[in-house]
Structure formats: C-alpha cells, structure tokens
Inverse folding.
C-alpha cells in the first residue's frame, strides 16, 4: 500500500481542503502517514497570507525532498495558485495544483507514474464560477469537531489582502450538499460542525434564491445528533438579525463569534478598504451582547499597517480595551506584492510591528481572563478533544479551553460533558 503524507499551512479553510484531499487518497487505497515519516507522496497545502507562510511552504517542500528524495512532491493551496512557476522551480516538486481542480489530485498523482514530466495543473482561478465539491469522507484526524467549507472566494478586495487573487470570486456550496455532508459527518460520530469559508458571511448571494447563512444553520439544526454548530470568521457587517436571533434562542448554535476588526482606528480602516466604521463595529458588539448574554467575541487585528502612527495604534489599543475580546489573533502587517497596501507610503518598521503585536496579545490575554472569571459558578460544557494527565480537555460552547477531571465515568473523544465552572487555571476553565 502506497503512503501519503500531508501538511497544512494557514487557515481553517486550508485545513478542510487537506482533510478532503486525504479522504480522496484513502478512498483510493492509499495509507496516510505523518509528514515527518518516509512516504511515497507528500502533499504540502500552502498559505500566501504572509511572507512567513510562503517561506514556511518552501521549507516544507525541501524537508519532504530530504526525507525521501524518491517521493512525489505535490504542492497545492494559495501560494501554489499565486506563484506556480516559482513553486515548480523548486527542486523535487512534481505536481502543482493551486486552489481548484483538487478533486483530481489522486488522478494527477497517478499520471506522474506514467510520465517523467512535471505537471502544472494551475488554472486561472478568476474563471472558476462554481464551488468545487470535494466532500469530507469521515477520515479526518480530528474526531471531535469537523470543519466544513461551505463557501469559497471573496469579492471584498481589502487593500492588504492577497486572498481574492488566490481563491477567486465568491462561490457558495448548495444547501442540499451542505446538509448531506453534515449528515454523513454526524453519522460518522461528529457532534460539532464548524462552518468555514473565505467570505462566510456572504454565503449564497450568487446562488438561485439567494439562500443565506441563517438558512444553512436552520437546515443543519434539523439533523439529529448534531449537538453544536459554530461559525468560523464572519465580517461584522454580515451578522444578520436572523443569525442573531438563532444564536440567542438555539442552544446548539454556539454563542461565539469571530468578528475581524483589523484596526481600531477609522483612518486605518478606511485605508484598508474595510466596509464599516469603528462606531458601527462597537454598536454591533453592544447589541449582540445585549441580545446574547455570555457571548464570546474573538477577533483579528493587523499591527503596523502602512500609515499607522503611534497615535493611531493607541486608538486601536484603546478600542481593544473597551470591547474586551475573549481572544485576539494579532499579527504584523505583511506586504503582499500586487495589493494596494504594498505600495502605500509610511511603511512601519518590523520592530515596531513586533512591539505592537505583543501589546495586543497582552490585551487579548487580559480579555480572556476577565471573560473566563465571569464563568465561575455557571454551568458549562466541553466537547472532549483529548485526554491528558488525568483530565478530559476541550472547548466550551464559548470557545474557551475547558477541562474536567477524569473520574469513574469514562468518556470518548467527541462526547459533550458538562458541569459547573469552579475555577480558572492557566487559561483553562475547570468544570466539576
């Protein structure tokens, strides 16, 4: 039996794509192995959001070549889509795919066995107008929660972002296909499904009848055995009243929203081509918390965007303190060639970016501690993801790390177990 090894860089959408490709290989009789092992085929699913992602992608390609110089090396994902010729020029690369036609990955790998030529299967992503069906087959590594991609592409063109050029136009998955896959995952033993996409909140705008994200959630709520539905990242301006009402009234719809802020300054938001003001974002948070008590809000923030002075960053820092996010994914601005921000004046030095990221992460930790402390004495549940050192560990409904002491009762990965929060320790809430 031939072996195949996968590694993934970047976002949850990329992880979904990897899981789906792994399933395709398994269906054809290949055996998945760890990426550090000697394998017949290595698949590197790349990221192009930052320069760091691209550098790590190249490093992983070279690592695979060193591990087994006779292996087929397959490079896919955003970096492959953006720079196929550069990828193809790296020693050892046999197949470059990009972000479409990945349902043919096994077929293309097997073509390599009949030819000595490198295959470049990258096509113009802007010409792809429909969602590529590449369903999961229940062979994923993570047996607790399943990440399910329901939308691809983005039409926003934020000035810093390369993703519209690597993922193409907005493309949504049909509701019936989503429900069928969700049912298959539940039948396979999953109790939580996380809906993901590049521009998730714009789901369905190009489909007949324009089904929206709320319609998808409603359909999934009809599936027996599906205990949790969670949203991936969604733009604040796309949180509809219908979604809010579902989250407020349906226990299975997790009270957690990841709402990218990107900057807490109107001047920087305008330069980023973001489609909201700071006041609009704050008003939304206030309204959400009033309607959904105990809501957990997490966010993304870019530090050191071109033109971000010390004063403007202070605005962002004050905004973060005021809102009190449960978690902040802070990262330094990374210049992406081909985007408007890459040629803007007043680029911020890397050392300044690093300092600002650290300050944002500090506020994120404080926000988490405050939120977790408010859970003490209240009921909570965790979806068990691992057993370690006598504890069952997993995430709460609010996406907080939780743990329950292993006692007489035996639980399985994927079980949902509850109790009362008794303490907060090392960013874990302890439930008894």
């Amino acid at each position: 039996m031939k072996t195949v090894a996968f590694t993934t860089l970047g976002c949850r959408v990329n992880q979904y794509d990897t899981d789906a490709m792994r399933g395709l290989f398994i269906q054809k009789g290949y055996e998945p192995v760890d990426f550090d092992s000697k394998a017949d085929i290595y698949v590197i699913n790349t990221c192009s959001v930052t320069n760091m992602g691209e550098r790590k992608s190249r490093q992983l390609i070279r690592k695979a070549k060193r591990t087994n110089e006779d292996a087929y090396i397959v490079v896919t994902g955003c970096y492959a889509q953006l720079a196929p010729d550069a990828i193809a020029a790296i020693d050892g690369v046999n197949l470059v795919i990009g972000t479409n036609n990945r349902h043919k990955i096994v077929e293309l790998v097997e073509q390599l066995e009949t030819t000595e030529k490198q295959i470049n299967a990258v096509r113009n992503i802007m010409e792809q107008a429909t969602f590529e069906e590449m369903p999961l087959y229940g062979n994923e590594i993570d047996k607790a929660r399943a990440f399910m991609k329901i939308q691809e592409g983005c039409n926003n063109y934020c000035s810093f972002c390369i993703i519209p050029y690597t993922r193409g136009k907005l493309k949504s998955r049909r509701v019936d296909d989503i429900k069928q896959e969700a049912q298959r995952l539940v039948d396979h033993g999953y109790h939580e499904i996380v809906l993901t996409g590049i521009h998730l909140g714009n789901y369905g705008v190009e489909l007949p009848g324009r089904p929206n994200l709320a319609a998808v959630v409603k359909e999934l709520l009809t599936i027996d055995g599906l205990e949790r539905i969670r949203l991936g990242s969604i733009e604040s301006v796309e949180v509809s009243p219908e979604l809010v009402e579902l989250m407020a009234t349906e226990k299975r719809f997790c009270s957690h929203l990841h709402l990218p802020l990107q900057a807490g300054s109107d001047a920087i938001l305008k330069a980023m081509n973001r489609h909201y003001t700071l006041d609009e974002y704050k008003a939304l948070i206030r309204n959400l918390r009033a309607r959904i008590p105990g809501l957990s809000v997490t966010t993304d923030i870019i530090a050191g965007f071109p033109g971000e002075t010390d004063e403007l960053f202070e605005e962002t820092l004050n905004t973060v303190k005021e809102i009190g996010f449960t978690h902040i994914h802070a990262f330094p601005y990374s210049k992406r060639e081909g985007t408007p921000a890459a040629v803007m004046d007043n680029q911020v030095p890397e050392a300044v970016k690093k300092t600002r990221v650290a300050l944002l992460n500090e506020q994120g930790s404080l926000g988490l501690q405050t939120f977790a402390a408010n859970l003490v004495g209240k009921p909570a549940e965790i979806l068990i993801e691992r057993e370690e050192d006598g504890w069952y560990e997993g995430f709460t409904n609010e996406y907080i790390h939780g743990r329950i002491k292993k006692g007489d009762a035996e639980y399985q990965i994927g079980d949902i177990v509850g109790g009362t929060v008794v303490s907060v320790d090392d960013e874990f809430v302890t439930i008894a």
Q: What stands out?
A: Residues 350-373 form the longest helix (24 residues).
